[in-house]
Design brief:
By secondary structure, this protein is an alpha+beta fold. The protein folds into 3 domains: about 5-275, Protocatechuate 4,5-dioxygenase, Chain B; about 280-410, Glycoprotein, Type 4 Pilin (2-Layer Sandwich), CATH 3.30.700.20; about 415-484, Dna Ligase, domain 1 (2-Layer Sandwich). It has helices at about 15-20, 30-45, 90-105, 115, 125-135, 155-170, 200-210, 215-220, 225-230, 235-240, 280-295, 300-315, 320-330, 335-350, 380-390, 455-465, and strands at about 5-10, 50, 65, 70-75, 80-90, 110, 145-150, 175-180, 245-255, 265-275, 355-360, 365-370, 405-415, 420, 430-435, 440-445, 475-480, 480-484. The mean pLDDT is about 95.
Length: about 475
Amino acid sequence: MAIQNIYFVPHPPIIMKEIGGRDVDHAKDTVIAYHKIAKMIAEDRPKTIIFVSPHGLSFDNGTCFYDETYLRGDFEMFGSPEITFHKSIDQEMTKCLESLMEQNDFTSILMTNELVKNYNRSLKLDHGVMVPMYFIDQYYIDYEVVHLTPGGTSLLENYKIGMLVRKITDQFDDCVIVCSGDLSHALKSSGPYAFHKDGPVFDQVMRDSVEKQDVEMLLTLEDSFVENAAQCGLRSFLIGFGALDGYTYKSSLYSYEGPFGVGYMIASLMPVEKTDSFYKTFEGKRDQLFEQRLSEESLYVTLARLTIAHYLKSRRTLKREMFKEIVLSSEFYHYSAEEVELFLEALSHERKGSFVSIHKNHHLRGCMGTIEPALNDLYDEIAYNAIIASTEDPRFNEINPCELKDLEISVDVLMAKEAVEDLDAFDVNRYGMIVEKGRKRGLLLPNLDSVTTVKEQYRICLDKAGIYMDQGVKLYRFEVIRHK
């Protein structure tokens, strides 16, 4: 294969002596490891280095490639304008990569000076590539550059992009991939972000994925966990892992430290020989779980799931006839035409509130609903709440279509609420809770794994309602029929 080696590196300008000064000594393990891998790259003498940087100009919904003959950059924003880089772009490889991504239905953009002027920006090398260049160029400068910036696309998509990178590089002369990214920025309260307990955990997972050669643990990370870690390297590293899909490889972790509250890791992946594709195995497992989930779901959940999938694709609601047609024609559902007709008929005669709860890998991904009926019937109520749970829950980003296979969905149909005097009237497994004070109102569904006491249920309801003094709060309880 044309890829000689893949390197995972951080990009803090503070480890450059001209910028960091004496602070460089606090990250000496990183600096030593950087010089080590820079010498290794010099020994490889690649014609092209593919730099994957999270800090290039980008669009959230796609992958961006810099497409100019030459690019320059400097460290002016870090107080050292005299440190400059001028690099030739391997435009042939760049255009081939972008074209292959388009052929495989990945959104990609060729970034030119003319294009970025429309956004009042200029096309320059960013510190995500210049920090690695600072060390590499001390030993080797005779290379061209491919500059790739991941968008905010799914983790699995970035792994698959790595697979496409390898497919293209097989057609070219020797190259090296440098995946640039820092780990958690939330390791210390004195760091750039407030400390978060998920920060150190994320960094350990990242190190384990290299040492144990286990990329699956990265692909199944929860969005909230990744966000709490405040990192910028995960998608870059997944592209690196993806570039070796179908190969055995030797992995080496050269250094890890977090002296300034940010995790710095330097590692390498060195291809050995061809083997079975991890991606095919991973997708096969996902498909089996998905098919099993579909076959076991109630029609209420099927309605929610198909509505979400249809809306994310078309931005339209799912009509009843189309719902019926999909269910009856699918090999995964085993309902008769009579069962579907009876289900739709029953919903058309009911007006009730409902909630649609969405989980991914057993973690909440979205939950929205109506306490009392707001639409014509229960079909419309469930469909509407499925759409807003997947696209408008303010706690989460909109669900990406590539996540659909991993979603676990439940639908709660709410019974009429009843006023109660105090918390003694509640049982967290049987009754949901509503609190009201003036115009403020908060609700919590019953029988949630994370809520075990009535006091906890009450506190969460108050928090959701924004009620900070509970004097004069009205209490209501309700039961639900939960469909899974």
